[in-house]
Sequence to fold (598 residues):
Amino acid sequence: MRLFGTDLVLLHPPSVYDFREARAEYGPISDLIFSTPVFEMYPMGFTSIAGHLERNGHNVRIVNIAQRMVTDPNYDAEAAIAQLNPSIFGIDLHWLPHAHGALKLSEIVKKHHPTTPVVFGGLSSSYFHRELIDSPNVDFVLRGDSTEGPMLQLLRAVMFGGDLRTIPNLTWRRDDGTVVVNPLSNVPANMDNGSVPDIFYVVRSVFKYGSLKDALPYSGWLDYPITALLTSRGCPLECVVCGGSHSAYQVVCERPHPAFRSPDELVRDITRIRKLSRAPIFLINDLRNGGRAYSRRILELLEKARPDNEIVIELCSPVKDDYLEQVGRSLPRWSVEITLESHDERIRRSNKRFACSNDEIVETIGKSLDNGVRRVDIFFMVGLPGQSYEDAIGFDAFCRELMERFDGDQRLEFFVAPLAPFLDPGSSAYEDSHTHGYRLRFRTLEEHRTALTATSWKEMLNYETDSMTRDEIVAAAYEAMRKLIELKRDWKLEEEAKCQASLDKINASAAAAFNIDHQIPPFVDHKTASAFNRTEFVRTPDVPSIFQKKYLVWPLVSGKRFASLFSLAWVGIELILDECRLLFTKRVPLVLSHRGED
Fold:
């Protein structure tokens, strides 16, 4: 064990490893996230794992292979991996769209480091752990949503020796090839063992390991350094298509109840981030999921702290009390996310999300506007249970009613996207697909991995429904986006020229997805589609979404991305002192106690 050696390297893969050569039409599949269709934003758990291990004396480095490949056409991922020399490699397969890239990275690791163990983790790894462990390039799989502790145990067992049978959540192979699945017993009841994400680990690692590019969460983060804070692991809600629902976490993580970040720790995270960034802070999951006392306590603490960053909150159900009044009193700048998914009350009841009347939705929006919200984002989805083509594209009439009801208030922002590319394993729609009207095309990890190499997102879709074929789902997604652009144009939410440019790009993408040599959806203008040669608009996933991503931003405080130089300098001093403390109180004793065991 070397004092300044790296014990663990965490690699984040691109969705498709060879995306720079394999051209495809990815359409709107990454429209409503900050990363490109490469999905180069690594999971938050990377930083909490790294932070936990470093607090216990280990050196852990994150290398965002996907981000490096997106931003640098000449970046040689294989050469970079070959130069690394940790005791163990970790690769995330959290989101299923990484199935191709993650397995390819494990193959590259084993090519250059045949004796170095490889461990996989994440929700998709947990679901497909038995299939993963059959790969000769995967040595371990850590299951569950909280693997900080088990990862520390595994790392020390690899480095110093230990009984793998005692490590919770671990799937592994004995020397004779027998697969062992240890109990998934590490399911913490709360989230107070560390921040998720641990943004200050990221900042400290930049200086410690000498690379800003490796540690960046996603391409473009320096231009817009938004931070998302996870308020809970697990959810009490049962949204049918959600891989993060209560039943999904029971299936994948054996979690009986959500684990919440305590109000004091959550607000402490927010105030610490304010020392570093002036960008928005997005609180993931509805604070009310923790109960009335929980959400009220958070707001009381925020009212005292008065953070001037834009705080973005989520609503997963209508507000019937004075919750939004308290939000308005507590936060100088705030916005709200409402993932409504459908304007149709029947479909919402089927999906078990916002199973309420439209009048209650309107009332909730009105309360937000009346209490000083800076923006209300309302999201709709194509591909829901029981949703027909007409249902999917009919959302714009509801949006127009909202604009009329609120006198064209430009704080209202609308989004629409398909449920793509995959229906989440673990969700009720996936596990009980027939009951919810879904027909699944893929079941195994290998089938999903292969699907990602298709030339169109239409061919990647892993489902159809009783109400729509894949062709209809894709056509409805494009038609819905077209209607959304027309809504923005009619209500002067966007300039005419920009709207027309967006419509042309939507038509071009639709023609590519359907292949204009064979079939053009009826809503695509044939003259517009024919003006594009197919090879001109078939995109590689490193090209940012051409449809809605530009609207997915909130204001920076005084137009500034980061805190003052004085604040940043003070953060830097604190991190240097923290690193020195960890070196002498954790790392040095650990090295001395295991001297000569390498």
Observations:
- The longest strand covers residues 334-341.
- Residues 66 and 429 are 30 Å apart (CA to CA).
